[in-house]
Design a protein that fits this description.
50% of the residues lie in helices and 11% in strands. By secondary structure, it is mainly alpha-helical.
């Protein structure tokens, strides 16, 4: 599997009532948490560097663009913001389900746990948690956290 395959599995909503669309920060941090899981093979992880809001993998952005072009992800405008949220299309949901079946239940649970972990936080509390656990990724942060 490729890191973008994990991204598709990660973007699958875990709860029927849950918002499907995720903002770039939650995508970045969720994929960062997955990259820290021992069960994720190293060749299938994104590489992260310290950046303005903690760990960042620029490859995620290019993969999102590629997945949009493939019709598997769609951008969702956020009123009043220059950034967008992202969610799976119907084709993306189908592809993610196929990948999840290949990856196995443990991998799917790990992705679901990472998604839950990043969606159960406010923006600030998510960054604070990441910075406390991985201070080496906070060195370029522009976030003013107490």
């Amino acid at each position: 599997m490729h890191p973008r395959d994990w991204l598709l599995i990660f973007l699958r909503p875990t709860d029927v009532g849950a918002s499907q669309a995720l903002d770039p920060i939650r995508i970045q941090k969720g994929m960062f948490y997955l990259s820290r899981e021992p069960s994720t093979p190293p060749a299938q992880r994104y590489d992260f560097v310290p950046y303005y809001y903690g760990p960042c993998s620029f490859s995620i952005y290019s993969d999102i663009d590629q997945l949009i072009g493939s019709g598997l992800i769609e951008p969702v405008p956020v009123p009043g913001q220059s950034w967008r949220k992202y969610r799976l299309t119907e084709a993306g949901l189908e592809q993610a389900a196929k990948l999840a079946a290949t990856a196995g239940p443990r991998a799917v649970e790990t992705c679901a746990a990472a998604r839950s972990r990043v969606t159960n936080h406010t923006f600030r509390s998510l960054l604070k948690e990441v910075y406390e656990q991985y201070p080496e990724y906070a060195v370029k942060s522009v976030a003013n956290l107490p």
